[in-house]
Design brief:
This protein is of the alpha+beta class. About 30% of the residues lie in helices and about 25% in strands. It has 18 helices and 38 strands. A six-stranded mixed beta sheet has the order 2-4-3-6-1-5. A five-stranded mixed beta sheet has the order 13-15-20-17-18. A hairpin with a 6-residue loop joins strand 34 (about 505-510) and strand 35. Helix 14 (about 595-610) crosses helix 15, helix 16 (about 665-680) crosses helix 17 and helix 17 crosses helix 18.
């Protein structure tokens, strides 16, 4: 750090009425102007030492912005408490230079830190957003969704205060006193829970009904499907029969909360038997206490026996959380959770459907059966007369759904006629009407302020649109609010929410090309590397002014091949294409190295003394080109010396041949010039830049050939044509190539 910056200091008044949300200070704009006046290049990050003049308490801090009122300083409540600052206390502030942190030891001051699912990701996110530095004795408050965990910095290396951004830090955490579990969440906790489950299961099999504590999360066992190769994989902690945990009772509007540890990429079945009253079920993968306002699925049927099959494909936490809500005054139910096989479910459904269809087809094609007009069933011919008379007298057909009911049942048959954007298709018993309308058609209020019926709320709003919905970010792996819908089309196509679009904008270094790539684009970037390996190499003419190249197994692309057997753009022709090599080739002479060297020397001498005479020439070793290197014809002696030097350098066997010959085709020269001047500075290799220009120009020519002779065309200036060519070439490069390693 510059000595002028180290010597800078000032005194500001702390305004306790203004608060900064992060543990960094907000300084006046005049401070920034003063620092820039001392040194235009400021260090990053800016770090300061703060001293309360009233009590001489000292802390360290970074700066978040320079927007405070003149002579005032704003800080967070944590920093005010650390300084024991009162309103308008004088704070002495001085810039300091701090080293990068190497090791830090934190002491947890909150119990149950073992509940933190990903402490590494949580601390990384906290330091990135909230902190610039750490100092010994500092209090930090880390927020994990709705829980706040307090830590104290006990030890730091290499100094008492260190910078914690843009560096790798080794973190050691001392657990809270009395918190023996520490961070062994995936081992010790599960063992303890399993033991608790066994005890609970044994007690639940008794005749008395189980009534849990309000708000308690009960971990239920799961019956795994048996494996053909190992019987030990089948775990059964259940009691009663068919895996049922029996005799739960719950009052109206109360909730039981459950969690089940489940295998990933599987299907589970939650089975309910309602013995008394009625209940509703809501489930989620992220929310520990789901309800109608926060869930990803539900079951609010009125049937006494229910089976809910759930896919765990989107679950990354190894747990599913669900709740049972009491709907009537007194409710009693049994519950079980089992892993099921997706193939078996599909086979069962297909077999049931096929059996019914096959049975109907057999009777339909059988002349001994006749279709009854009332119940629409196939009846044997000998019974059809009696059946039809009985059916017409005792049964009725619903005109809405076409189903047949007895005259006693028909008055209780009910169709929902409510039209919420889409007409409801529910069909059931008349006793279902009250609950159906209450659960499916009564709007409920979301945390974001929108009111929607339950189906639309869960199936569309909570799963895709709600900014308050809880997600696990695919980049920082933390539970966060999703935020609003992205406005960037690329983020929308990737399925990112607002938080993930922002979090994924952080860059990482590609291990292959060492380029900085945004985390949300790293997968596409990796695919480009794969595509790059599959593409054949591009070999460019060794003449620095020529844009001819070949690829696709060394077939000429931009220069027509000669009828002879010369392998152009190879060592045989010193890397020259057919056009450039043709300057020296003659059928009357053998192309020895001496003859070729003599031809190169003559060509350079001609360019330097006479020039090529082309208006578009940009060859710096031509006296008639636009390049100012050779502004006028050279005298023969100077030309001979320079020609000899260029020839020796070009034909040096230790380096790759490089020539500077004039080209006689305008497009050939312009392509090389545009590539070097506009595209190569973007970081792409000159070979791919020229290929992009050639490909785009070829596409434009084909497009012009397909247009009708009488079609209207807009005349463009040469400048507009060049701009359009470069724009399309850049777009082609972004899709088909990668920047070179700088």
């Amino acid at each position: 750090m510059d000595n002028a910056l180290k010597s800078w200091s000032t005194t500001l008044l702390v305004n306790t009425n203004r608060e900064n949300t992060v543990d960094k200070v907000v300084l006046p704009n005049s401070v920034l102007e003063t620092l820039i006046s001392k040194n235009a290049t400021l260090p990053s990050p800016l770090t300061f030492v703060l001293v309360n003049k009233r009590n001489n308490v000292k802390i360290y801090s970074g700066v978040s912005e320079f927007t405070a009122e003149e002579n005032e300083i704003y800080m967070s409540n944590t920093m005010k408490n650390a300084l024991d600052a009162n309103h308008y206390d004088e704070i002495f502030i001085r810039m300091v230079e701090l080293p990068k942190c190497q090791e830090v030891k934190l002491k947890a001051m909150s119990a149950n830190i073992s509940k933190i699912s990903n402490i590494k990701a949580l601390l990384e996110s906290y330091f990135r957003k909230e902190q610039t530095l750490l100092y010994i004795g500092q209090e930090i408050n880390v927020v994990d969704w709705q829980e706040t965990y307090k830590f104290i910095v006990q030890e730091l290396k290499p100094e008492m205060a260190c910078i914690v951004i843009d560096t790798d830090v080794e973190v050691d955490i001392e657990p809270f006193e009395g918190d023996n579990q520490g961070f062994e969440l995936n081992n010790n906790n599960n063992n303890n829970n399993s033991n608790n489950n066994n005890n609970h299961t044994s007690s639940s099999s008794s005749s008395s009904a189980y009534k849990g504590n309000k708000g308690e999360i009960i971990e239920l066992p799961i019956t795994l499907k048996s494996k053909s190769n190992s019987t030990s994989n089948k775990i059964n902690y259940t009691s009663g029969y068919n895996g049922m945990i029996k005799n739960f009772t719950i009052d109206k509007e109360e909730y039981y909360y459950y969690k089940v540890k489940i295998p990933l990429h599987s299907y589970i079945s939650i089975q309910l038997i309602i013995r008394q009253g009625d209940v509703n079920l809501y489930y989620s993968f992220n929310i520990e206490k789901p309800d109608a306002h926060n869930c990803i699925g539900y079951n609010v049927d009125l049937t006494k026996q229910r089976k809910i099959v759930i896919s765990t494909e989107k679950n990354i936490d190894n747990f599913i959380y669900f709740s049972i809500q009491g709907y009537q005054d007194k409710n009693e139910f049994d519950i079980s959770v089992q892993e099921v096989d997706k193939d078996e479910l599909e086979i069962d459904n297909e077999e049931t459907t096929l059996n019914n269809e096959e049975e109907d087809d057999e009777k339909k094609n059988d002349p001994n059966y006749t279709l009854c007009d009332h119940c629409h069933q196939y009846i044997p011919n000998q019974s059809i007369t009696l059946h039809s008379a009985f059916c017409a007298r005792n049964n009725m057909i619903c005109e809405a759904c076409g189903k047949t009911f007895s005259r006693a049942e028909f008055p209780d048959h009910w169709h929902c006629d409510i039209d919420d954007n889409i007409k409801c298709q529910y069909v059931g018993h008349r006793s279902d009407k009250e609950k159906h309308q209450a659960m499916y058609h009564t709007p409920i209020l979301c945390d974001c302020g929108i009111t929607l019926p339950l189906p639309e709320m869960v199936e569309h709003h909570l799963s895709e649109k709600c900014p308050e919905r809880q997600i696990i970010c695919r980049y920082c792996k933390l539970k966060v609010k999703a935020g609003n819908v992205c406005t960037n089309l690329q983020d929308v196509l990737k399925g990112l929410c607002e938080h993930e679009a922002e979090c994924g904008s952080r860059t990482v270094v590609c291990q292959q090309c060492h380029a900085s790539v945004q985390m949300k684009n790293i997968q596409v970037h990796g695919q480009l590397h794969i595509m790059e390996k599959k593409k054949p190499p591009i070999i460019l003419c060794s003449n620095k002014n020529c844009s001819h190249y070949k690829d696709k197994k060394f077939k000429n692309v931009t220069a027509s091949a000669s009828s002879n057997s010369i392998n152009y753009l190879s060592r045989e022709t010193k890397g020259l294409c057919a056009t450039c090599y043709g300057l020296f080739w003659s059928p009357r002479h053998e192309m020895t190295d001496a003859y070729f060297s003599q031809g190169v020397l003559k060509q350079y001498h001609k360019q330097l003394t006479v020039g090529c005479g082309k208006e578009f020439c940009t060859n710096k070793y031509c006296c008639t080109s636009k390049d100012p290197t050779i502004s006028q014809p050279m005298n023969p002696t100077e030309s001979a010396l320079l020609s000899l030097e260029l020839t020796k350098k070009a034909l040096n066997p230790k380096i790759k041949p490089t020539f500077h010959f004039c080209v006689f085709e305008k497009r050939n020269a312009e392509q090389r010039q545009l590539a070097n001047e506009f595209l190569v500075p973007l970081g792409y290799s000159v070979e791919w830049c020229i290929k992009a220009l050639v490909t785009v120009q070829k596409q434009e020519l084909e497009k012009e050939g397909e247009e009708d002779d009488f079609s209207m065309t807009v005349e463009k200036t040469p400048e507009e044509e060049r701009t359009e060519l470069l724009t399309k070439s850049i777009d082609w490069l972004k899709i088909n190539s990668l920047p070179i390693d700088k």
